[in-house]
Every structure is written in C-alpha cells, then in structure tokens.
Amino acid sequence: MAFASFDRQTSGAPMAEINMVPLIDVMLVLLVIFIVTAPLLTHAVKLELPQATSQVNPPVPVKIDFAIDAQGQRYWNGEPVSREDAAARFLAEGGKPMQPEIHLRADQDATYRPVAQTLADASKAGLTKVAFVSQPETK
C-alpha cells in the first residue's frame, strides 16, 4: 500500500494504488446490517384466519309456546285457544316450508288427556319438532 509522504519530489506524482481500507469497512458494516435485519424479515406469526363462505345463513325456525294449565285450558303464545283452534293452527304451521319449534309446557297437575291430544294434533299436522319444557327441582 502506498501512503502519502511529505516529500516534495514524489508528492506531485499520482497514486497508482486504491486504498481498500474504507471499502472493506463499508462492506463489513453492510454485512452486519444484513445479518441483523435478515431474521426480522422472515419472522411470521402463525394465524388461523376464518374462512368466508358465500352461503346464506339458514333462517331460524319460529318458536311457539304452547301451555296447558291444570284445568286443561290450552294457550298459544299466552293466548287461550280451544282444541279445534289449536289443531287448525297446527295445520297452518305444518304447511309452511320451515317447521316451527313447539315448546310444550304442561302444569304438573294437568291430566294426561289434553297433553296427549295436543301431541296427536301436532303429529297429524306433520309437526315433528316438539319440546317439553320443565322446571328443574330446587333443593
């Protein structure tokens, strides 16, 4: 390597060698930068993203609260109805494309006859989604 000198005779002559020290310093700094930043670029977080569908959500079936009290009186969503009225409403609901859910609540002192008649009327109308509602025992 050639170093500059204070000699006046050779100071005017052009330098024929390239000083490599600054180039090596720059190269080492760039190498360190790439070593530090390369792992940051490849780091990924594992996520399970939800899948979107274009299907229409199915409609929720209608719920009918059917109650029978201790005297055998029938109630359709809180409204008193006769057996014939209830059977006609069951036929109307059975003809719909979306069957309703029937939640049958009977008083514990009610006789079996009105409950059995109601189940038979619902079955004749083609309704199959019948649920019995009860209250859990308290201790």
Structure description:
34% of the residues lie in helices and 15% in strands. With 139 residues, the chain is an alpha/beta fold. A 5-stranded mixed beta sheet has the order 3-2-1-4-5. A hairpin with a 2-residue loop joins strand 2 (74-76) and strand 3.
Q: Based on helices, strands and strand pairing, what is the structural class?
A: alpha/beta
Annotation, overall tally of beta strands: 5
- Helix-strand string: HEEEHEHE
**Main sheet record:** 5 strands, mixed
Query: How many whole angstroms does the radius of gyration measure?
Result: 44 Å
On the 0 to 100 scale, the average pLDDT is 86
Number of H/I helices: 3
Q: What portion of the residues fall into strands of 2 or more residues?
A: 15-25%
The outline comes out as rod-shaped
The CA-CA distance between the termini, in Å, is: 100 Å
The low-confidence parts are none
Q: Into which percent range does the helicity of residues fall? A: 25-40%
How do the strands of the widest beta sheet line up side by side?
3-2-1-4-5
Topology:
Layout: H1 21-42, E1 63-68, E2 74-76, E3 79-81, H2 83-94, E4 101-106, H3 112-124, E5 130-132
Parallel strand pairs: 1-4, 4-5
Antiparallel strand pairs: 1-2, 2-3
Please outline what is shown here.
This protein has 139 residues and is α/β, with parallel strands linked by helices.
